[in-house]
Amino acid sequence: MTRRYSALSLFKEGLAGQTGWQPAWRSPEPKPSYDAIVIGGGGHGLATAYYLAKNHNIARVAVLEKGWIGGGNTGRNTTVVRSNYYYPESVELYGLAHRLYEGLAKDLNYNVMLSQRGMVNLCHSTAEMEIGARTVNAMQINGIDAELFSPDDVRRVAPIYNFSPDARFPVFGGIWQGRAGTARHDAVAWGYARAASRLGVDIIQNCEITDFIIEGGRCRGVQTSRGAIRAERIGMAVAGHSSVLAAKAGFRLPINSYALQACVSEPVKPILDTVVLSPGCGVYVSQSDKGEIVIGGGLDRVPSYAQRGNLPTLETVIAGLLEMFPIFGQLKLMRQWAGIVDVVPDSSPIIGESPLPGLFLNCGWGTGGFKAIPAGGTLLANLLASGKHNDISRPFDLDRFASGRLIDEAAGSGIAH
Amino acid sequence: MQLFPCPFCGPRDETEFHYGGDAGNIRPDGADVPIDRWANYLYLRSNPKGAAREIWVHMNCGEFFVMERDTVTHKVLSSAALDGEHVA
């Protein structure tokens, strides 16, 4: 039976007719009770379960997923991993995620295909260059790699950009983060699922939460489509559906749910080996390992739970793409989709205990949750294990909305949302 | 392109409209409003999946109005001018 993935095991299985592979994770029946329950089998939920078992030795854990794992925003994002944020609190958070991503394939024994191909946020005017310099300075002071790019630097990393004299958004330079890049989104979900399952975590798919079990003012379990499941500590990482579960638990959140669209072209030969973001065009672009051009933009401006997106936003994004890269006018779009993102007024996540004791939140990542998966999992696991914040998660507690200590990372999302 | 019904101009392209927030979210009045009440008014949202009652503005005519909408199907259920006391 082959348990560990390696070149040697691949070779041996080749000789043995590929008969020794096991399913990557077990699919057990739910038990009546666990030490901890994680609601949501996306990247954040699976990572939470993995770190509960690995960092805190708590392996009697269930991950409850309404559909299939990685089928929500984890499978719908544009796979960018970066930590080019402004405020120290954000840098601690996204910096942790970025560092964990760099060791993740080895840690999980699963190739998440992290490709640190660098990312440039373009500046289109002298004023934007001033802000760019300020951002680069802040990042460097906070210990994050960053470089202010000249127009020639941008031309070096993205020669196919529209440098024509009549370009609507000329290039004055850019903010470069060389450690940024992309990762294979499904592999992140599957890698965490496999690693968590091997440590004893039960991953239970097609298990929808219908209600919370509340006794003595505490959350003590959940009612699901597969029966009641109890635990003293429950975490939820359900992104755009956080408000729906919060309503069942009896509280409201500072969240509006919107559709965020993305699309990919037909696969073409390698032409773009970095991630390029243009705030002016409202678009960011990379090329996947399969050759598809991966295109993302701003939010649909209509509050929505429909995972499809509206046409006007797609038109705006494609128009912006062609302004950036006129050469892509020949491409055919292959697929378009949307995920439901949980947008918070200050564009920073919510991590902490909910107003219902025993129920802990990991939500509010809005348009940028994928890059934060290892940190979101680490921090929610710490909360579930200890019941307390650590220094990194403390500033992101829900109480910041009453105290007014917002972490206004609106600029950190890159695109104006 | 979806058409939204402005109570003043009739059906118009969705791009002409801007979302303004939950209907019925009334600003607290008075000097001794507790912090939680302010936070509730400023930040907390019902964010319903399904039928929603929302304030929208038609940016062309500048009028605010109430639209009832389904946030899953995007079907518009009703649209009406504000009734004077914000939105009951």
What's the gyration radius of chain B in Å? 14 Å
Number of strands of chain A: 19
Average pLDDT, all residues of chain B: 93
State the CATH architecture of chain B: 2-Layer Sandwich
End-to-end separation of chain A: 49 Å
Provide a compact summary of the structure.
Chain A has 417 residues and is of the alpha/beta class. Chain A is 29% helix and 25% strand.
List the helices and strands and how they pair.
The complex is a heterodimer of chains A (417) and B (88).
Chain A (H helix, E strand, L loop, with lengths): L6 H9 L20 E4 L3 H14 L4 E4 L15 E2 L6 H15 L1 H5 L10 E5 L2 H16 L5 E3 L1 H7 L15 E5 L3 E2 L2 H14 L3 E3 L4 E7 L2 E7 L2 E4 L2 E4 L5 H8 L6 E12 L7 E4 L4 E5 L4 E12 L7 H14 L8 E11 L6 E4 L5 E5 L9 H14 L13 H4 L14
Parallel strand pairs in A: 1-2, 1-12, 2-8, 4-14, 12-19
Antiparallel strand pairs in A: 3-7, 4-6, 5-6, 9-10, 10-11, 13-16, 13-17, 14-15, 15-16, 18-19
Helix pairs in contact in A: 2-7, 2-10, 3-10
Chain B lengths: L2 E4 L3 E4 L3 E6 L12 H8 L8 E8 L4 E8 L5 E6 L7
Antiparallel strand pairs in B: 1-2, 3-4, 4-5, 5-6
Structure description:
The complex is a heterodimer of chains A (417) and B (88). By secondary structure, chain A is of the alpha/beta class. Chain A has two domains: 222 residues, FAD/NAD(P)-binding domain; 149 residues, D-Amino Acid Oxidase, subunit A, domain 2 (D-Amino Acid Oxidase, Chain A, domain 2). Chain A is built from eleven helices and 19 strands. In chain A, strand 18 and strand 19 form a beta hairpin. The radius of gyration of chain A is 21 Å and the shape is globular. The mean pLDDT of chain A is 95. Chain B is mainly beta. Chain B has one domain: Folate-binding fold. Chain B has a four-stranded antiparallel sheet, with no helix packed on it. A two-stranded antiparallel ribbon of chain B has the order 1-2. At the A-B interface, helix 8 and strand 16 of A face helix 1 of B.
